[in-house]
Design a protein that fits this description.
With 68 residues, the protein is mainly α. Helices cover 54% and strands 0% of the residues. It is globular, with a radius of gyration of 11 Å. The model has no long low-confidence stretch (mean pLDDT 94).
Amino acid sequence: MKTRIRELREKNKITQEELALAVGVTRQTITSIEGEKYTASLVLAYKIARYFNMTIEEIFDFSEVGEI
């Protein structure tokens, strides 16, 4: 799943480690999400969105998920 996490981190001058600590995961988890190797859980997606003061939909691209 594509995300804007890297873009937002760089814009705000935040390291992967800083974001990871803020949302309660490891730096490797953030690396995996940014590299599209891991899809964040709903809870983690919510924490990341709240960290950037955005909605989940503004950060995560659900276009590949399909329609319900």
